[in-house]
Write a structure and sequence with these properties.
TIM Barrel, eight-stranded parallel β-barrel
Length: 291
Amino acid sequence: MQHLSRRTFLATSAAATALALTSRTACAAAGDKMAYGLVTYQWGADWDLPTLIANCEKAGALGVELRTTHAHGVETTLDDKQRAAVRDRFADSDVTLVGIGSNERYDDPDPAVVKKAIAATKGFIQLSHDVGSTGVKVKPDSFHANVPHEKTIEQIGRSLNELGKYADGFGQQIRLEVHGKCAELPTIKAIMDIADDPNVAVCWNSNPQDLLGEGLEHNFGLVRNRFGATCHVRELDSPDYPYQQLIDLLVKSDYNGWILLESSSKPADKVAALAKQVKLFEEMVAKAARA
């Protein structure tokens, strides 16, 4: 397997991202660098791979993050031929395979548990490379009794650095989802201050904690410079989160990446519901661009 240098990765991944988000001109309008897609959670969890791709194409959600254990079946157990088939299936469609959503986390006080999680994540990094996606989502994730928060934060950060260095050889990005007991943004910033490897990035997750303290704009600013290629949202018409403000901040800061739906509801017609979210996204981006 040919490995890439860090310099080559940084150059090629930037070009790949630009192509994946469709053709962009040098004078792209505000918000044009973002695209909308789906995480296989709730709405996509029960769709096999052909159904998932077809439904995303029909709805106009042209990027997908494949969460592990779901019906798509894209797992580390696939052999080389099966991985190539996944890669080819996406290449023959209008849908971009944005990344792999692992459930690995690095907070456990037991070093053996952390070592196992790191090894499992390396398997997902290899899988992501082989199927043609560009990164792996991971979690921080919790604090534990009788363990100082600072110790857990440092442990998570050091684990991420190890993974970032490993991912460098596969042209992959490690995407730390803002999640769990570590979901307050000052905590994520503290982790990322330790996880300073350039292949480690933040996956914004649209949590209630985003609104704590000095509010969304302040918390967004704490980690915006470390955003990766993915940002998770729930349904954009949800009344309990200021999604227009989030879209405004993303457009204003010239975010270049995927806004991925991690749904929280169970509509009868998921494809129609997804198409509605695509339209809402487009309307919100247009409104932000006019502001």
